[in-house]
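User: Show me a protein chain along with its predicted structure.
Assistant: Here is one chain, sequence first, then structure tokens.
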Amino acid sequence: MNPMKQTELLKYLQNNIPVVAVNRRLARRLIADFDALQVAQGGEVWRRPEVFTYETWLKNSLQKLDQADALLSPAQAQRVWEKILSDDIKTAGTSLLQVTQSAKMALAASQLLTRYETTFSEEEGAVDHCSFLRWQNVWMQMAGQNGWIMMSELPGLVADALDRGRLTAPGKLLFAGFDNLTPIDLRLRRSLQQRNCQLIDWQIPERKSGSPGLVAAASPDDEVRRAACWASAILQADPDCRVAIVAPQLEQYRSSFQSTFLAQIDPSLLINGELHSKRMNISLGERLDRIPVVRTGLKLLSTGHQISLNEIGWLLRSPYLKGSLTEQSQRCLADRVLREKNRTDWTLPRLLKRLEPLKIPDFCAIVSSFIQRPAGRGTCSPGAWAEKFHEEIGVTGWPGERTLSSDDYQAVKRFYQTLESLASLDRVCGLIDRSTAVKLLSQLAAEAIFQPESQSNGVDVLGLLEAAGQEFDHLWVLGLHDAALPQPAQPNPFIPLPLQRRLEMPHADADRELFFARTVTRRLFCAAPDLVLSWPQTIDGAPCRPSPLIHKYTPSEPPQATSADPASIIWQQRPELESVDDRHVAPIHSQKAVSGGTGIVKDQAICPFRAFAHHRLRAEGLRSPDVGLDGMARGTLIHTVLELFWQEVVAQKRLLAMSEESLLTLLKTVVEQAISRFERQYRDSLTPRQRRLESARLLRMALKWLEVDRRRPPFEAVVEQRHTKMVGQLTLRTRIDRLDTLENGHIAIIDFKSGSSVDHKQWLDARITEPQLPIYCLHHPADSIDAVLFAHLQGNDKECRFVGLARTPDAWPGLQESSQNKLLADKGVDDFDAALRHWQKVLPELGDAFIRGEIAVTPVQEKSCQYCDIKPICRIDMTAAGGGDEL
């Protein structure tokens, strides 16, 4: 090796010496430094330096040999190996859990053997190795017949061409940043030297500097925060210096860099909701199929003739479709309307019929385009499918009406390149059907790593390999715990392990990983005169130890800038604060009935803000559909069955006189009527199987409850009465399930409940959270009320009973006088009449509080918030977490 300073390297570029860089980032950096040097020297026009990556230089050499068309792309090679494995499964009768992943590892094994110019025999391997050799033989036959070349073969092909005089070697060639050369690379270098090419190797020179700082951070987030404050302090002192942060496992730090780090380096971006900064350039791409605009495109192409509600909602909310701006409000409404239908899946024609009245013509046109796609399993070449996909996605207006950000624009461009990659599979793939084509496109997008190009003048965030060959003014290497450096061995499963160890193949064993880690860190720790190393003491609560490669360094604390996260900036830049009492809003002056029924008083008791949000703001959470009918629908149906039954029967004595046959006949009739009424009301129809199952359930539950009604004192049922009632100053419209007239002329007020549990004990609290029945009592003389009861409708015989309060509890199935007396005593209530008086006092107070506009966020108990649908707007979680009231 012949190390030289980077200024000498630039001199070589000025002398038109070609440079082969170890990675793209170093190549771009060298070109940028060369351009900056020309500008500094007063140059106006200059020849672009010859700087290539190794892969690009090899491809250029292949181009000179007129063999560029023979080179398979990674996607083409992967597809060939998948076909080899799939055919082998059919022929040999073997099985693989994941053909795609197995093909990827087998392809990697084949490339490793090529780079190390070796092979092995069946006697050296186990069953999996023999399978690989079988696949490898098929690959070599196919490659020979079709003239295919893989990237791993290029160094050998170029070396052979040099040896035979088919290629002319340059006079000089500089390799920058290379550490790990394989046997096939060394053969190429020998061929170059034999053709009188002077090879020059450049590495970062060894530095004699002070000991680097060593930081033991509490966690990865703490590491990133400290590194951010360190970088911020440096950039404040010298904005033009080169600062880098390197992590061996950069992927695990992605979220911290996009939040904690960015908050310190460029907090104004997070305030505006952005994630990319010109002050930070993170060398960590993301799978293309995870980029929202590309994910939308793939979703559009993969939509079949049936679509789930979640997928419909996702498309309705997507900003990347035609009409996403002009129809935004109506599409949100459509999402809500579809959720209320309680269907988890929709056929496209049925969905279109439901959407057409909702005034979203652009979205309906998109659904129509899905319907118009040819049905069946017709086959085309991948290229033909790529053209069709391009047309289909254009019909939807993708990628939308709004101006694309730079990142989205680049992602769209990359997606179209992925379509071209799909078309390139014509070379190695026959005719395929649509589902296979979509699967291939999705696979290509998943394998493509997308990293937006940006001009960064700030901090470079790099992985170990991306940092190779580069020099910085200040460098922080984080994540140096013992599980990250050296990394665990990961030998290829299709190459015998002894062979991998003997040839020191990458990831073969712990010794190979330790050697690699020492080599990389030796270079890296020389990359800057100012060096800081750090490791997290815990990761997700699990303790960590420092890497053995940093034990010799002494702990120290690097300089830190003052925290500049968005919350601090907002607080420091706040104007003079104005105190606003948000516990009250304007009162209601109208005397008209407020819609919401007794639910208003219930919500006011549970939490005043909840009542305000539900009944004045009309805010409510979106429904999540259940499989089949949800609890509310099932409750409505059994209520309707009993309502229709008692409208016909009226008196208990008639029920007692009915034969079993006549009872069943009547119940079957009212069950059918109840289901028909439900379907008309919700404009939806049950499937035949649903109808059968629900009819059987309703009949079974009705029979069980009528057995309870048989054991009651004599009564006549008056069902489903509508009333207008005053609760304090609040006017409500209510509907009573049952108001039964008893033999003594008194009444029993009954409400049916089909939920898993009912609680009547809270009737005696100051804030009654189930106020429906107590409200019905307000306008009846106290001495005319004999019972206030929930009729608990359950499939379990023991749970099918009455729950509540009565003057004579023992007369009602499920009630006991001793239990009721104990409850009254525990609550400090003397008797049944005292409970009625309690309701006369506390219920009007709740109604008046709603009318007065009292909306404080004061839930009656902590569990009231557990399933509340308005938590996103009430701020209860922020206050509980210490956010306080000043927001």
